[in-house]
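Example (one chain per record):
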Amino acid sequence: MKRILVVKVTSLGDIVEALPVVADIRRAFPGVKVDWAADESFVDIVRWNTGIDRVLYAPLRRFKKTRRWSDFKAILASIVELRAERYDVIIDIHGVYKSAIIAWLARSKRCFGYLAKDLGERGAAFAYNGRFGPRPACDAWTGMRVSAGEALGYTVDTPPEFNMRIPRLGDALPAPESPTAVIFHATSKDEKKWPVAHWGELCLALQARGLRIELPWGSDIERATAVEIAALVPGAVVLPQLTVRQVAQRIEEAALVVGTDTGFVHLSHALVRPTVMIFVTTSSEHTGVRAPGRSISIGDGFHVPPVKVALDAVDQVYPPRGNTTAGDASASAA
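Predicted structure:
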């Protein structure tokens, strides 16, 4: 086995959680080269994995919105680059039309994808001449690792290894001068949001534990929410608008990360930071983060988790320090 292509196109959190597949493959096949195909929007995330040899990307999302000729030409150029290598095996762990088309265009005699019932879009099945087994009874992230192992003939029996290295360039923010909690309140859908009042109570409790509060944002609406939360938490800092790399750097410097079911919280888990992920309407069992003493997910997908439950989760990954006790912090949030 000399070269393998992994296809996982979007989105930020899903790509982050799929990255351990690379370490699994390289462990099973020492010396193998692993390439990865993704949407241009997430190319940096893939490049930060130290085990990937070549990142193939195209502006698929942008072209869908703009239909610009320049983006179409970029897609054509990416196809030429994709076909420049012949792969021993292609594994599509995404399972939708766009990933299947990429897998079909790439050069290989063996291309694996999900069974029809497990595909995100059943029509994607046209691209595969090999299939993963039935979806295992586990979370989505372990399932991707197991599926890749089935295709390539190895067993997954180790904790996930993300192997991410965030580049440090001259545009990084100054490092925080005190322990900092980075709060990711924004989500892709309104129904996944945790109430602003809950964020306010939680942040006050974290401040009582000696943590400085930082609030990132990515759109005008998200900034308005960050300002609303900061109004409830004297001293909380609404960060300037940051690049994905700058956010990743801030996560690496954080003492604690708390956020909703969103990509940057998955990135925090991958960067081995103490992490709490809050689920409101989606399944924490299926797509949450978990690592004993470091990452935890809360919420059953049907109810808004109370602040007390979030603080209990914080205790598990970032126990109270100094003179502050869990009881003091909880009382400050009451």
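Caption: Residues 69-82 form the longest helix (14 residues).
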